[in-house]
Structures are given as C-alpha cells and as structure tokens.
Design a protein that fits this description.
With 320 residues, the protein is of the alpha/beta class. The chain contains eleven helices and twelve strands.
Length: 320
C-alpha cells in the first residue's frame, strides 16, 4: 500500500461521520473540490472506492467501515502526542460528541452550551440520542461521552457517578391531590400519564440491554402501587413533554424531580410526594483509552459544574 498523507485520513474521518462532502468541507475549512480530490487519492492508496453516492448521502463500503475505528483512534492518539501543552478551553478548537436522552438534554444541555460559549468559544457539541450500539460507538470513538442511568458496563468503559435522581409524583398546581396526597392511592387508571422511554415497558426500575451495556431507563412508568399494570389514559416517551402535559391537564405522572422546574412554570405544576422506593443513579460513561485526554477531562468537569455535582461527582457508580 502507498504512503498515505495524514491529511487524507482527516478527510476520511470527517466523511465517515458526516456522510457528506459539503459538510466535511465546512468542518475542515476546505473546498468541496479539495475534499473530492483527497478522497480520490485515498481511494487509490487503499484500492477501494470507500464511499458510494446514494440519495441520502455517501454510503461507506465494507472496507471503509472496517478501517474507520482504527483511523479515528490513530488520529486521536496523534493529536494527544502532538499536543504537549495542557488543554486550554479558551483557545482549543474541538467538537465533542455526547450521547444523551431527553432527560439530560433538558437538564444539562442548555447550561452546558451557555457555559462553553463563554469559556471555550472554539468548542462545539454534537448531541445524539442513545442507541442500541452505544458500547460500539464508544469503542469506535463516534461518541466521546455518554450520559444516562447505567448498570454494569464492560470493563473497557469507565463510569463516574453524578447524582441520584429522585422520582416524584407531579400534578397540576391547584389539584386536590396536591393538598391531599393520599388521593393517589385511589386514583383511577385514566388519570395517570404513563411514560415509556424508547419502547413500552411497565413497572419501576425497568432495564434495557443495549449492545452488551445494561442501561437503566431514565423514565419510569407512572403506575401507582397496586394498580395491577393497567394502562393510563396517555403514554408518552418524552419526560419533559409528560411534565408539560401534567401541568395543563388533570393527569398525574411519576417523573424525575430535577426535571419538574425545567419543563413547566412553577405556578403551573406541583410535586405531590416522592416515591421512596424509586430512584436512578445518573452517571457519565466513556472509554478507558481516553483516560489521558485532557479535553475530555475538561468536558467532564464542565458537566459536573453544570449539574452542581461538586466533590460527590468523583465517586464511582455503585455495583448493582
């Protein structure tokens, strides 16, 4: 195989993620012609077309998918080797890719973006929804950091505990249930708003298995104890929408406490009582090979600052 210019690998890495010559050119500050020329040289070097044009964008070949993880890991290592000075967020130019569901999008992302804009104007973020291939995404470097409620993770992945989220019953402000929480015990099923994140499920503490990673579902189905598993009047997959719906109706739902003030005006919604037996350990997850990545260390510190985790954010996730 011919010698390969490292700049060609940067182009390949951008194309494998973005699947678009136009977007890759924008990211790398090059012309579309330069991107196409670089791709042509790389095709000759590896003797493979690498990408095929399709209506939805560039489709990587089997060979491209095979070499993509190694190229990304190699570029990451080279950047680390060529950057002896500490990571300086004020001058750094980098894009972090974060996996986060609707819970962390509502709770964290706005503050994260605001703080980064003030402290690190060259830093940008790609926020993607958690998927079934999350461990593979962390392996391949397509995701730098994952946020969620995780159980046992493979040894190659590192977890850092952030906080324990309490689940509470929420109702519209002024509802009789707010003044008399005992009414929850006899609440008919049609007054409950059920939350199913990702796929339908029932009961407290549901789990989903995603590519070998045990992930605790953030939203817990809002079924009253002893309700017999009956479905409520409405089922939603998104917790912020559920809270806003509760504030506008006579429905109630079991939701994460921290998200209540983020999703509805305080005068429109009230917390009735907590569900003592239900809670979720929220954590950050990343690949162990990035332990020395100063940029990722800065990002994790920023996440803790935004969430107010403080020193407690240093503890590992408890074993399940």
């Amino acid at each position: 195989m011919r010698e390969i210019d490292l700049n060609l690998l940067r182009v390949f890495d951008a194309l494998i993620e973005l699947r678009s010559v136009t977007r890759a050119a924008d990211r790398l500050g090059l012309t579309q012609s330069a991107i196409s020329h670089a791709l042509g040289r790389l095709r000759l070097a590896v003797d493979d077309p690498l990408f095929v044009r399709r209506p939805g964008g560039l489709q990587p070949t089997a060979r491209a998918l095979e070499i993509a993880p190694g190229i990304r890991q190699g570029l990451t290592q080279l950047r680390g080797a060529l950057s002896p000075s500490p990571f300086d967020p004020a001058t750094a130019v980098r894009r972090f890719r974060i996996s986060a569901g609707s819970y962390f999008c509502a709770l964290l992302v706005p503050d994260l973006a605001a703080r980064a804009r003030g402290r690190a104007p060259g830093i940008s973020f790609s926020i993607v929804a958690p998927g079934p291939d999350l461990p593979s995404q962390l392996d391949e470097g397509t995701i730098d950091l994952a946020l969620g409620a995780f159980g046992k993770a493979p040894p190659r992945l590192v977890s850092e505990f952030l906080f324990r989220e309490e689940l509470v019953w929420a109702a519209r402000a002024g509802s009789p249930i707010v003044a008399k929480p005992s009414l929850l015990q006899d609440l008919p099923p049609e007054r409950r708003l059920d939350i199913a994140a990702g796929r339908p499920f029932r009961g407290h503490g549901s789990y989903s298995w995603e590519g070998g990673l045990e992930r605790r579902v953030v939203a817990v189905a809002a079924a009253a104890d002893g309700a017999g598993g009956e479905e409520g009047q409405m089922t939603l997959y998104d917790v912020p929408t559920a809270i806003a719906t509760v504030a506008a109706t006579d429905l109630v739902a079991l939701v994460p406490r921290r998200l209540v003030p983020k999703s509805a005006a305080p005068e429109r919604i009230a917390i009735v009582e907590s569900s003592a037996e239900s809670g979720l350990d929220m954590a950050m997850l990343w690949h162990s090979r990035l332990a020395g990545d100063a940029g990722l260390l800065w990002l994790r510190t920023l996440v803790r600052d935004c969430l107010g985790a403080g020193e407690d954010g240093q503890a590992p996730v408890p074993e399940k």
